[in-house]
Amino acid sequence: MNNQKLPSLKTFKTPTSGMKSPGSSKIQKTIVPPVLHEVGKLAAGVAAVNTGSATGNPRNKCALQPGHSLMDWIRLGSSGKDLTGVGNRAGRLTVTLKQLEEHDKENDAWLAIRGKVYNITYYLPFHPGGPEEIMKGAGKDATSLFDQIHPWVNYDQILNKCLIGKLVLNDSDLTIEDLFVSSNKPKTPTRDQQTPNSPLAKDSSDIQSNNNQVLKEVQTQEQQQQTNSVTQPPLPRFDWIQKMDSITTIFYTKSLSNPQIEINPPNQENIINIFMQFDGKHFVNELKFSKSIQWPCQTKINYETGKIELIFKKIESQIWENYGTLRQRYEEQPVMDLKLKYSVINKVQVNQNTCLLELERVDSTKLTVPLGKHIRIFGKVKGEEMSRSYTPVPNSLFSKYKPQVYTSDNICLMIKSYPNGNISRFICGKNKYDVVELSRPLGTFNLADLEHRELFLMLAGGTGLTPMLGLLSFLLERRVNLEHRELFLMLAGGTGLTPMLGLLSFLLERRVKKCQKVSLLFFNRTEEDILLRNQFDTLQKEDSRFQPAYILSQPSPKWKGFKGHITSEILQDAFANLIGDSCYTRKDVYVLVCGPTVFTNLAQSLLKELEVSDEQMYLFLG
């Protein structure tokens, strides 16, 4: 795209209706009676905590009607009124998925979160996000939806007066009597898989185990009123390999599973707990080494194949007879801390208003953030609790932007500080060794959507590029051409840079289905606002498949590059440059868009005018 001239652009006025300042809005204090202090404090997190998207744009809220404040909800719950609709059976019922689906109307709305079913009919007008948002979970298991929006909120305290009972699998044989939870039912066995030690291998320099036979043990857990046995997903396949000074444990998930990995440091018994999450499933791997190892380990994740390698240094350099033991199990919803403490270990100023920070877990636990996912930062500003979402970027940005051999378990953030941005100023004001609170990874991005794509167009504005950087290197490293859709277009506008940074490395690094081209349209106001320009220009010289273009809406007289805003003409030109004289068509291009809400909505509208289907685009909306 840099080799061809974009068509002349007519500057248009950006719509302002419905827009919000990038700063975090202030939270109003509420006086809560002592007896309800805990519930009120948690409910205030839903009603008052400032929210934002992965690009730094605040999420819209619904104005509550008079008589529907937080205190009104607390009073209603304490009035003795039956909010469940099931009378004295409340809390003792079991509900099948089929029965849950029948309660999806505003005058009869049930939802389930982590196995508990609540009647939210009375709560609808009290929900700070409006009835429409919470109704998205009505009549279904809303656990995933809840975790995407505000997983740190203690929903059980807020909805405890609405509790109907427990959620079970569909069972056509259930009777009315069966719907009552019985504590006298026999316990249901669950699978717990243990992998035994492997025999001593013959090659002492690089030793890999043979196929391990699997021993199965039957343990018991608390019965959750399931009359049918539950078919559990297959456990991640395990292997190991060692050298004189190190041992590598290997877990195989599946291609493009984009796993989230959390590794706890060894305890006194030399046991390391490894938590894996992918495809909405949670797996616990309890690894006990036969001898002592050093901490921390190094992590390598092949996002294309789903292979996970954990490399541990040995305390004593020697060949082990076996690695030890591994116990694996599947958990539907493991109990984990919702807020995590991180310490600032590195800070670099990128430009006049943007800084790059590297954060490390205080408790020495290692956590990897899946590609395209974001985290939330919590902070108290003038005594008020606030939070905002940001997308991690590759830590190679501290030196030279390039694919990484090892997967970073530190969290790196590139944050633009706004004059009225409470959280952005809060985090950019942190110094080395200061501690901040973060959420666990959030978001809905599905890496498998890129499997058969080979042409990519990126539309990025400001810091809206960051979700794409992790994919860029991955795509450029793909070695084999297969099938179609190998062109990618990234559109980033304003503060939409950050979600794309993580994706860029992935796209340029992809090996199985080689990426043909990745075009990045990076929209900013002034030349000083262009983040990482030198690194992008260097990357283009090293890999011609990557084509960045910088478009300014308020350029200086000296600016000789592209000018204006996103238009249909710009997009048509971008598609033409991507396709060139190849056999590809516009339908083979995959488009990623991130930026302020107005930019993203306009880009989506323009793309649809060009007959780009929903399956060809992904919008980072936070």
UniProtKB/TrEMBL annotation:
Example of a GO cellular component annotation carried by this entry: endoplasmic reticulum
Lineage: Eukaryota, Metazoa, Ecdysozoa, Arthropoda, Hexapoda
Single annotated GO MF: cytochrome-b5 reductase activity, acting on NADH
The Cytochrome b5 heme-binding domain, residue ranges: 92-168
Region (Disordered), start-end ranges: 1-27, 183-236
Low complexity composition-biased segments: 213-232
Keywords from the named record: Heme, Iron, Membrane, Metal-binding, NAD, Oxidoreductase, Transmembrane, Transmembrane helix
One Pfam family this sequence matches: Cyt-b5
Chain ranges of the CS domain: 233-324
One example of a Gene Ontology biological process annotation: superoxide metabolic process
Transmembrane segments: 455-475, 487-508
Entry EC no(s): 1.6.2.2
Name the UniProt record assigns to this protein: Cytochrome b5 reductase 4
Enzyme class per UniProt: oxidoreductase
Compositionally skewed regions (Polar residues) per UniProt: 183-198
Annotated catalysed reactions: 2 Fe(III)-[cytochrome b5] + NADH = 2 Fe(II)-[cytochrome b5] + NAD(+) + H(+)
Native source organism of the sequence: Popillia japonica (Japanese beetle)
Sequence ranges assigned to domain FAD-binding FR-type in this UniProt record: 337-448
Domain of life: Eukaryota
Family statement drawn from the similarity comment of this UniProt entry: Belongs to the flavoprotein pyridine nucleotide cytochrome reductase family.
